[in-house]
Design brief:
It is a single chain. The protein is α+β, with helices and mostly antiparallel strands. It has helices at residues 3-18, 27-39, 95-111, 133-137, 143-146, 198-216, 254-274, 294-308, 363-380; strands at 53-58, 63-69, 119-125, 149-160, 164-165, 169-172, 174-183, 187-188, 224-232, 238-239, 242-251, 278-287, 290-292, 334-342. It is built from 9 helices and 14 strands. The longest helix has 21 residues, at 254-274. The chain starts with a helix and ends with a helix. Bound molecules: nickel (II) ion.
């Protein structure tokens, strides 16, 4: 990796970082990406995407799709960096780095395209944060049906800079957002017997949801039930007639996911009933279980070893985080990598989605190289 390539990718990231756009509003970001690719001689495919883009390099078979997500979060940045955003949004998950990395990979692949035995689709995907982006991308063109494999990854603050994790099996959790609406009867705070108190009911529901994890499922299964927000009540002496709970569930097998959803609904409804109230539950899926294909994980391990040496590979426990990359994997095999960015000396220690989130950018050229090497290994590996 040359110093110039590092500088170029860091500068590209800074430009993107300074102008973040939240999910479904990545218009200027898309303009930037298109201009960058055109400058490389890559014309984005003519699909009517509102935001994001799809481009291709090479031709024939096999075919691999490389994915980067492009949306930011509605978070006010506090890093104080010279290229910090001041528009109220922030690339606090690191998708600015993902774009810089995939652009860098495109630059490498475009230079060697005559040596590629197959085709690469470049996916710059909007709306990862709301889980809508990957199903959206699948609606355009034939890239999905044609692709033999899909490769993606995330820069990762729990992994030291210089390390890369690629391994087979479960990597990220199935994730759903849930809402519980509790209906009771409003009344005077001094006459609880004449009303149905949804704050007491909602509190009981929160407490009754936790034993689902500890008493319904095996201790060996990884399950999360989190209530992140409760809204109820108008005033200290009014008994609340409505309550709204919002939360998320996480798991690693679709069977457990189904059981978890059914049990959550049962507990919410029967608890409400015990207090004389009623409850309705709604769900929205944010990600399926993300499972790396064994062979494709090996391709990744070979690519990292060839490019950066075997010592770069690091084991890492799977995470309860969700990723809409998983929605690409219901019909196609894929592989998802984690690129270490943690470096206490640079202050790169804050969690993803923190307004102090920052990264060790030495990961950028390494990740870009791995995307390109992965592609070469996948397309040309069997020669
Ligand atoms: Ni992310």
């Amino acid at each position: 990796m040359t110093e110039a390539f590092y500088d170029h990718l860091a500068k590209t990231r800074h430009q993107i970082h300074q102008h973040p756009e939240v999910s479904e509003e990545e218009h200027e970001t898309t303009v930037f990406l298109k201009a960058y690719l055109k400058n490389l001689g890559i014309e984005p495919l003519n699909y009517p995407l509102k935001t994001g883009l799809i481009a291709e390099i090479g031709s024939g078979h096999p075919i691999i799709a490389l994915r980067a997500d492009i949306d930011a979060l509605p978070i006010k940045e506090k890093t104080g960096l010279p290229y910090a955003s001041d528009n109220g949004a922030m690339h606090a998950c690191g998708h600015d780095a993902h774009m810089s990395v995939l652009l860098g990979a495109a630059k490498i692949l475009q230079q060697v395209k005559d040596d590629l035995h197959g085709k690469v689709y470049l996916l710059f995907q909007p709306s990862e944060e709301d889980g809508e982006g990957s199903p959206y991308m699948r609606r355009f063109g034939t890239w999905y049906e044609e692709s033999d494999a899909i490769f993606g990854g995330h820069i990762w603050i729990d992994l030291p800079a210089g390390k890369i994790n690629i391994e087979e099996g479960h990597r990220m959790a199935g994730a759903w957002e849930f809402h519980i609406y509790v209906h009771g009867k409003q009344g005077h705070g001094a006459q609880p017997h004449l009303s149905i108190d949804t704050i007491v009911t909602a509190s009981a529901i929160v407490m009754n949801l936790q034993p689902i994890v500890s008493r319904h499922f095996s201790p060996l299964d990884s399950v999360v039930v989190t209530v992140g927000k409760i809204t109820a009540g108008d005033r200290y002496n009014v008994i609340s007639g409505e309550a709204h709970l919002e939360g998320t569930i996480r798991y690693f097998s679709e069977e457990i996911g189904k059981d978890l959803k059914e049990t959550l609904v049962h507990v919410a409804k029967t608890t409400a009933e015990a207090y004389g109230a009623t409850a309705e539950v709604t769900f929205r899926q944010m990600g399926a279980t993300l499972t790396n294909d064994a062979k494709l994980a090996q391709v990744g391990q070979r690519a990292v070893t060839k490019l950066l040496g075997e010592a770069t590979l690091a084991p890492m426990e799977k995470t309860m985080g969700g990723e809409d990359f998983s929605f690409y994997l219901d019909k196609k095999p894929g592989c998802y990598a984690f690129f270490g960015i943690k470096n206490p000396e640079l202050g790169a220690v804050h969690s993803h989605h923190s307004n102090y989130f920052t990264i060790d950018e030495s990961a950028l050229p390494k990740a870009a190289g791995v995307y390109a090497e992965y592609t070469a290994e996948f397309l040309n590996g069997d020669d």
